[in-house]
Queue: 2 jobs
Job 1
Amino acid sequence: MPDDVTIYEVGARDGLQNEKGIVPVQAKAEFITRLLAAGLPVVEATSFVHPQWVPQLADAGELMAMLGEEGRHLPVLVPNERGLDRALELGLRHIAIFGSATETFAQKNLNRSLDEQFAMFAPTVTRARAAGLDVRAYVSMCFGDPWEGAVPVEQVVSVGRRLVDLGASQLSLGDTVGVGTAGQVSGLLDAFNAAGLPDEVLAVHFHDTYGQALANAYAAWQHGIRTFDASAGGLGGCPYAKSATGNLATEDLVWMFRGLGVETGVDLDALVATSTWMAGILGRPSPSRVVTALAPR
Ligand code: HMG
Ligand code: MG
């Protein structure tokens, strides 16, 4: 159905990457299995980044081996050829590279300049595509950057265009620090469309720092976007982005789409139960309003 939406679940990766206490690998595997069982069609599992940069995800290899065949079709973050090698060794089929729209965040998150990041991604994507893998690309800091302030739309579009030209099949536009508002969303999507990237190639990735994530998702849906990143229970935050808080909660998004009569395929009760269970492991309640409303007391 053309009006169905796809929720790209990032809780196990974006949601957990910022957690200080290491979540046991068995709990991560169970989290992913439960998210899949709740009907989420795409569950990003982990990151093959430098383990010292993101210690929480240092167990990526172990986790994917534990998930076995089920894990092979789940996307994982890969910044460079070393990360790709690790993913290929495990027979994984979907990777996601992650670029920055700003110079400062490219340095802080990738230890590269804005231009240098493409030199790191180019051979990674070429080799991945040659091996038959699918490649998603993220652009971070699309709506504002804590160090540089407003980010010119042309700069965001140029970075996104370059990532797609490298061979990415989908581009996820990240509001890494959650500062964007609905008017900006439509403006940026119009600019991408004008640059030859239609809504079908685009996804949106909102963080909820200023409480705008759901309104932004609605604006994107009205524009024609049909792939939405979200994180179970609203977990999340980027370790290298000052002030980034949780992602848009998957439950909040599912509740909105249910009200609109838009099919997500997600079993909301199973998802709430999963997020409530994970909140118990993390030792604090989910910030999601829908989880709070629906969780059994
Ligand atoms: P670097 O230090 O410049 O790496 O880090 P290097 O290429 O100079 O290599 C140095 C050493 O690291 C070498 O080892 C490499 O083998 C090793 P040595 O020869 O010294 O023994 N190495 C690796 N080991 C394991 N896996 C790897 C890897 N790469 C190199 N993949 C690097 C560059 C990109 C690796 C580093 O900056 C990094 O890992 N960054 C990741 C940061 C991160 O994960 N951030 C969070 C995800 S992004 C995000 O959350 C935003 C998003 O959600 C969208 C949004 O919200 O906007 C996606
Ligand atoms: Mg993010």
Job 2
Amino acid sequence: MAKSVLVLNGPNLNMLGLREPQIYGTDTLAHIEALVAEEAERLGLAVECRQSNHEGQLIDWIQQAHGEHHGIIINPGAYSHTSLAIHDALKAVGLPVLEVHLSNIFKREAFRHHSYVSLVAVGVICGLGATGYRLALQALNEKL
Ligand code: CA2
């Protein structure tokens, strides 16, 4: 059976392509999810993409990934820098996690330089836009 990957996007990422293209590019979230689906098919992986603006919803999906998915790719958005609860949920679920950021968070404000999620991630990809999700799928595929 195909290994399954859960791809989570956090708050405001539903706005992609609509605002701040100089930071986040012109791709919409739907376009990024289509690229992810295409790459997953090429790799022979099953994939499920979800986005929420709510911390608790993201945590529920992370918990439910147990027994359902084999790995998680997450762009936690601003929760990267604030959410100990998402950190704890990812740690508890025990699946390999790849963290993705569209922008290079290290070239931006100091408050974006720390991520609670990075502490529980196998790896972090940032600054490569939509390509980051494709690379994360490839990296996770090698881990699974
Ligand atoms: O670079 C990333 O992918 C971020 O996770 C994006 C978050 C930001 O808080 C992180 O520091 C880095 C923000 C997502 C906001 O997305 C928007 C997209 C279009 C218009 C407005 C916001």
